[in-house]
Each structure stands twice: as structure tokens, then as C-alpha cells.
Amino acid sequence: MDVIFSGIQPSGDLTLGNYLGALKNFIPFQDKAECFYCIVNQHAITVPQDPKLLHERTRNLAALYIAAGLDPKKATIFVQSEVPEHALLGWMMICSAYVGEMERMTQYKSKAQKQEKKNGFIPLGLLTYPPLMAADILLYQATFVPVGDDQRQHMEITRDLAERFNRKYGEVFTLPEMWAPEGGARVMSLQEPTKKMSKSDDNEWATIHMLDEPDVITKKIKRAVTDSIGHVHYDKENQPGVSNLMSIHSAFSGKNFEEIEKMYEGQGYGVFKKDLIDLIVDQMSPILSRYKELMGSPELDSILDEGAAKAHARASITYNKAIHAMGLYRK
Ligand code: TYM
């Protein structure tokens, strides 16, 4: 049976990008595979976090996982820092990695630059982020990892580290495959559509959050940048704004670009945007109301306690194999 692992950082309010690129795609796997879905709070601290906010966001993200459709009876939902094997195997992966390959990671380069500008230093954790992510995945011998397109390089390095370890110390790890959705793998900013939609964007109009109320979604889509061409047409070069909105439409409606172009032929952007708002609101409102219910219930803690115990039971099997392979044991 396939084993699925994925994680999201509790580092800000989740965006439509996180939903379409990752969370939405977690759901169908729970009926056909063994699933581990993690709240990766140890990745979140690779940049400075406010402790109280990090604590709150960790719980909020767990509630959002469930509100979006994850069923704790089918999938294991847990917090990364509550399963110590992540940090332990993470260290072993760091020791198997090279400084040069880490410095070449594009996400490292852009985040390091941002941190240096903002705080005057580059946290070392940013450089060692990928080996910790590799540890997350390899601990569960995952076969598939549903993630957005921006994680491609991290997935490649995960496979490289696993292969390197297996070659040197014997076959311990399964090589995981990335699973990216056809539509929604890269949702772009609504204001600068050549840039990816991100939790940490300072421009509130650029990002739709999963928990935005319908009136906020409406305003943001209405304000989304388009162009003066006036045709609903997929052309990332010349119509990046409209193309991004079409990708979002497609991810929600299941229609391909050709079908969407036909639907709005000769109609300009008004009708298209109105339908898009309806599509987003229809799918996101039930998530918002379930989320509000869950936040007020004591259920969440028992789900996460159970999840951590199940994840630990599984992770410790691989961890034991890995320390024996590496000679990191006494008896
Ligand atoms: P994070 O929290 O930055 O993003 C979580 C997921 O959301 C996807 N995503 C997007 N997809 C489409 N369009 C966007 N604009 C967009 N923005 C974000 C990301 O691709 C990701 O799937 N490194 C991971 C966290 C992680 C992880 C793991 C993932 C740590 N360990 C192990 C999988 C397996 C990340 O950056 O998360």
C-alpha cells in the first residue's frame, strides 16, 4: 500500500495556494493509502517566530486540516515537535548533506536574502531546512508526497540524501515521489502574478486566505490584476493575471483552460470574476464554518495526542534501522 506524507508550516494564515497546491490534495489519499499529515512547526522556527503565535497557529492548522476534510480515523494528523525522531533523523541527514548543495537551493537563497535584509542575519536553520524535510518524509518510508510545485527542489534533494545514505550504509529508506496537482500547483499573487502567492506577503490584496470571509474574497478577486486585452485566454507570458485566475477557476471547477475560454468568449472579465468568486466561496465557506466549530471543541487535543503516538510508533522503526546502519548505537 502507498504511504503518503506531507506537511505544512504553521507560519501564517494558510492561503489558497496552500489549499490548492497541498491540503486539498491530501484528502483523496486517505481512502486509498496510509497517510501521515504533519504540522511542521520545527520548520517554521527556521525563521524567527513569536512563541505565543506559533503555539496558536499550530492548533489552528490542525483544526484547518480537519475542517478541510481530513478524517483523523483515516489519516494520522500530528505535530512534528511531538515526535522526536524528526529532529533526531534530521541531524543524521544534516550530517549526510553538503554545504554546497544546500547553498544552491533556490528557496534558501531567497529566504536568506529576505532575512538578512529584515533582521541583519541569516538563521542557520534555513540552510539545514531540506535535510529536516528529508527526515520527515523518510521516517515514514513515504512513497508519495503531495506538495505544490515550489517544493520540487526539496523533493529532489530528499531523494538524493536517501540514495546517498542507502549507498553508504545499506538500504534503509524508500525513495519518495513528488505528487503535484495538474491545476493549482503554483497559485500566483493576485497583485503581482509573476510571483507566487505566499503566507508572508505584506500586501493583503495579493493573497486569499483559506479563512477569509466571503465578502473579503469578493473584494480581493474584484481587485485582482488583469490586463487591457479583455479576453479570458490562457497566456502566462502576456496575460499572467488572467492566466492565474483561470488556474484557480480550473482547480475549483475541474474544467480545463479550453473549456473556460469557451465559457467566457466575448464576455470580458466581469462575468468570469463573478463566477470565480462563487466557485471559491462555495467551496471555502463550509471549511470556514467547520473550522469555527472545531476550534471551540476539546476534541482537537485528543486527535493530536493520538496522532503523535501513531506517528512515533511508525517513525521509531525507521529511526532504529537508520541508527544501526550508521553505527549510532551501543547495544
Ligand atoms: P509551506 O508551509 O510553505 O507550504 C505548504 C504547502 O503549500 C504549497 N504551496 C503552494 N502551492 C501552490 N501555490 C502556491 N502559491 C503555494 N504556496 C505554498 C507548498 O508547495 C507546500 O506543499 N517545505 C514545506 C513544508 C514541509 C514538508 C515536509 C512538505 C516540511 N516537511 C515534508 C512535505 C513533506 C513547505 O514549504 O511548506
TrEMBL record:
The keyword Protein biosynthesis applies. One of its GO terms (molecular function) is tryptophan-tRNA ligase activity. A motif ('KMSKS' region) lies at residues 196-200. SUPFAM superfamilies: Nucleotidylyl transferase. Belongs to the class-I aminoacyl-tRNA synthetase family. Homodimer. Catalyzes the attachment of tryptophan to tRNA(Trp). This is Tryptophan--tRNA ligase. It comes from Dialister hominis. The gene is trpS.
